[in-house]
Amino acid sequence: MAGTQRYLRYIIFAFICLLLVFFFSSSPVPSSRLQTASEIIKEQGSKWKGSSAPTSADSGVKDVSSQPNVSSDKETTPNTSGHRLGETAPGERMNATFVTLARNSDVWEIARSIRQVEDRFNRKFNYDWVFLNDNDFDDTFIKVTTSLVSGKTKYGKINSEHWSFPSWIDTNKAAKVRDEMKQKQIIYGDSISYRHMCRYESGFFFRHPLMLEYEWYWRVEPSIELFCDINYDTFKFMAEHKKKYSFVLSLYEYVETIPTLWDSVKTFMQKYPQHIAKDNSMSFLSDDDGKTYNHCHFWSNFEIGNLNWLRSQAYLDFFDHLDKDGGFFYERWGDAPVHSIAAGLMLPKNELHFFDDIAYYHVPFTHCPTSEKVRTDNKCHCNPKDNFDWNGYSCTARFFETNNMQKPEGYEKQQ
Ligand SMILES: Nc1nc2c(ncn2[C@@H]2O[C@H](COP(=O)(O)OP(=O)(O)O)[C@@H](O)[C@H]2O)c(=O)[nH]1
Ligand SMILES: *[C@@H]1O[C@H](CO)[C@@H](O)[C@H](O)[C@H]1NC(C)=O
Ligand SMILES: *[C@@H]1O[C@H](CO)[C@@H](O)[C@H](O)[C@H]1NC(C)=O
Ligand SMILES: *[C@@H]1O[C@H](CO)[C@@H](O)[C@H](O)[C@H]1NC(C)=O
Ligand SMILES: [Mg+2]
């Protein structure tokens, strides 16, 4: 007891000294006050030896200003659990969720993504987040992601039927293809799980029982970055502007992964002419009115879209048709060209949206708004030099041309 009291006296003494130093030595200019005080404390650092006050001037000043009522060690860490700082956007929420397909080993990479999405958008809207996995999520994954998401989190295991070779696939033939692709050093060319992932994202994620509860989704992958504040409800924007599918980055697909995809698309178009939209985006996908594919696609690691469209008969017929042709396993069809071709052919072109104000990075490409006004209005921290939009390997200029959109001022300088 006596020891504690002496300890207390020392703290009070140190505290009073600090206050005296602070007030008597500070200049009348408020902005230099802190600096002056901390400089003096630094100079006199040796005097504090043996007392309980910290010898580091900076931390000493910080402790005093942020915790003026320290009376025991237990109270040195303020209990802020349950405090919600930051404003919540008023108004109704949409029937929407974030969705992430991930492995347990992705936890720290997806944690980074979630933190960025929350800071820039979701802390104001608190939308739910659905996590899907072909395995059970472990405790760490659940604990970390639940703590980061401001909305409800839900964890789903994928039905093994949706993550395995369908009966009509010749697995020997598929294995041979993987060997060949490995030899050719095609990225993910020898991976079985990557193929299941692409097929799942193409045809099944929107049918998972947890996803049936929603109308809108925003897909998030591990290790992405968001560079600008998003101060409006992107789901509401989609609904109000009658959009069904959206993107931020577009590019040319690696030809070796989809040699016969367009053949399959062409037989689909012949078989199901009723599913092809009149005012479609064929000129985004093809330079010869549909004879060949130019390999342009929207990059699907970012998507905000309408789940009921993906669950429509048109999209399901499209997926089933491609799936029967076997290219998810006999080649390495990606979900990006599959979603893009579907959106480009089966939606009227005015139902697609380019989110210029969602500045985004997924290795190795960045979308950074071309307009300086957009960047400063939304507190963006991306380097405009990194913007991929007007690069020769991007298809975004083609999207602008297909839709008669005016390119933003300054785009020429980024070509
Ligand atoms: N559960 C699960 N998720 C996977 C698997 N492979 C990839 N993913 C997820 O699928 C998405 C795409 O995979 P990623 O490795 O980012 O592919 P990349 O962006 O094309 O290089 C990410 O959200 C991954 O976490 C897998 O085998 N199991
Ligand atoms: C300091 O703490 C005491 C006891 O915990 C409390 O009664 C008092 O109101 C506090 N003062 C301030 C300024 O927070
Ligand atoms: C912190 O505050 C929360 C809510 O006010 C409370 O539930 C929790 O028990 C507190 N934790 C500690 C360590 O006092
Ligand atoms: C959300 O959308 C799904 C799919 O359309 C629907 O089944 C569900 O009833 C909707 N929920 C609400 C609260 O409107
Ligand atoms: Mg990825």
Task: Give a description of the structure.
The chain has 415 residues and is α/β, with parallel strands linked by helices. The chain is globular and about 85 Å long. 33% of the residues are buried. About 7% of the residues have low confidence. Guanosine-5'-diphosphate binds next to β1 and α7.
Provide a short characterization of the protein structure.
Residues 52-82 have a biased composition (Polar residues). This protein has 415 residues and is an alpha/beta fold.
Structural class: alpha/beta
Percent strand: 5-15%
Order of helices and strands: HHHEHEHEHHEEHEEHHEEHHHHEEEHH
Taking pLDDT < 50 over at least 5 consecutive residues as the criterion, the unreliable ranges are 27-35, 44-65
The number of distinct β-strands equals 12
Pfam family, one: Glyco_transf_15
Protein name: Nucleotide-diphospho-sugar transferase
Keywords: Glycosyltransferase, Membrane, Transferase, Transmembrane, Transmembrane helix
Biased composition (Polar residues): 52-82
Which features does this protein show?
415 residues; alpha/beta; 5-stranded mixed β-sheet; 3-stranded antiparallel β-sheet; 12 strands; 40% helix; globular; binds guanosine-5'-diphosphate; binds 2-acetamido-2-deoxy-beta-D-glucopyranose; binds magnesium ion
What is the strand and helix layout of this fold?
Layout lengths: L1 H24 L4 H14 L13 H10 L29 E6 L5 H14 L7 E6 L5 H10 L4 E5 L13 H13 L8 H12 L12 E4 L5 E2 L7 H7 L4 E3 L2 E3 L8 H11 L10 H4 L10 E3 L4 E4 H4 L2 H13 L1 H4 L4 H12 L5 E3 L5 E3 L2 E3 L4 H6 L18 H7 L13
Parallel strand pairs: 1-2, 1-4, 2-3, 6-10
Antiparallel strand pairs: 4-9, 5-11, 7-8, 11-12
The site of guanosine-5'-diphosphate has 13 residues, from β1 and α7.
